[in-house]
Amino acid sequence: MSTREKEVGTLSFTATGYMEVMRAIRALYNKRQDTLLDLASTLHKELTKITGRGAAEARKNQLLKFLRMDMVSMSCYPRSECLIAGKTHQLDDSEKDRLLKELLRGKGETLTKPRRTSFEKLTNKVASFSLNCDHYGELTLSKVTLTIKWLSDGHSCIDSAKESVYFKLFSSVMTDYKWRRNEGGAFYQTDEHGEDASDQQGIAYHPNLSEHYGPKGITIKTTFWSYHKKEAAKAMTDFMAKHGR
């Protein structure tokens, strides 16, 4: 049974730092759109090889197999791994949906040639945008607030969100980024089991510090653990006093 969980957090940047990070993420996002368009064109080329009577239905079925969206493949292959024209591709489920809709947009779901406009890039004028992490989470970049905000909220959603193409894209930029003073932040997790346990024990429920970034994140981590160490000691003292030990 899946667990209801949530992870949320904000990373803050200087104006210079934000523009550097945003441009790096934007460039990788645009490169991904090129990759998806190339893949769509390859799929179209492969599917046009199927001709003759019943070709439309056969092409649709083959496309589903290529994208591992047929029921047999979904049960037998790792999530998001697709073998197309002899090459393995890692695709988010949301990307598979995009490819399927683009290639079968003809009348009666017949094969159509992919359009560049369906895989639009972000122009240099776009400095604020969001990245959908396969419907399991979202990263929001804002030039106005100079922040990147993260939210993943749902049933067993956090790990799936972090396995998405766009979260990995974000993580790669964060790994290479040279943090400036007072930049960074942290992500916090909550889940229904922790909340239920706290309710049963009659104690306040606090979110877990799940990830930290940059100098600001280090400060948050130090403060967080110092606070919770004191809270744990206080809770133990109260417990001992209550039970007369």
Provide the fold topology.
Elements: E1 4-12, H1 15-47, H2 55-66, H3 71-76, E2 81-84, E3 87-90, H4 93-103, E4 129-132, E5 138-142, E6 147-155, H5 158-162, H6 165-176, E7 184-191, H7 192-201, E8 208-213, H8 214-242
Antiparallel strand pairs: 1-6, 1-7, 2-3, 4-5, 5-6, 7-8
Walk me through this protein's architecture.
The chain is α+β, with helices and mostly antiparallel strands. It folds into 2 domains: 4-29 and 125-242, no CATH class; 36-119, no CATH class. The protein is 48% helix and 20% strand. The chain contains 8 helices and 8 strands. The protein has a 6-stranded antiparallel β-sheet with strand order 4-5-6-1-7-8, with helices on both faces. A hairpin with a 5-residue loop joins strand 4 and strand 5. Helix 1 (15-47) crosses helix 4 and helix 1 packs antiparallel against helix 6 (165-176). The longest helix has 33 residues, at 15-47.
List key phrases describing it.
245 residues, alpha+beta, two-stranded antiparallel ribbon, 8 strands, 20% strand
* Helix proportion: 40-55%
Low-confidence stretches: none
**Looking across the biggest beta sheet, what order are the strands in?**
4-5-6-1-7-8
How many DSSP H or I helices? 8
The number of distinct β-strands equals: 8
Helix vs. strand class: alpha+beta
Mean pLDDT: 87
Largest sheet: 6 strands, antiparallel
Rg calc: 23 Å
**β-strand amount:** 15-25%
Outline of the structure:
By secondary structure, the protein is α+β, with helices and mostly antiparallel strands.
